[in-house]
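User: Okay, second chain of the day. Same drill as before: sequence in, structure tokens out.
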Amino acid sequence: MLINFWTYTCINRLRSLPYVRAWAEKYQEQGLVVIGVHTPEFAFEHDIENVRQAASDRRISYPIAIDNDYAIWSAFANHYWPALYFVDAQGQIRHHHFGEGALRTVRTGSPTLANRNRKRWHRS
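Assistant: Same drill. Structure tokens below.
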């Protein structure tokens, strides 16, 4: 699973979106699930309709949790937009990446973790 913390006006997040969207599509069959967590930075970003419109405009098809009260953000002790957390089938964070840099390195880990998770999911 990939947890993607974002806010729709963050320029760094906009630059990372093509990678996350591509991973969601490419590795879905291998078991990768992407969940976006929209945690607003500014007051106008609390408006759910704005988030829906931004997701539609940017062709985001994976589910998005609205984190207006920072509950999920706090549970992860997160401090960054964007922030990527790769979580295994047992709920353990196996990798994290903050910001937009070095996403090609992160990409190589996506199928490996997805394949491990798929094997575990199909055993039950």
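The first strand starts at residue 2 and ends at 6.

User: Thanks, on to the next one.
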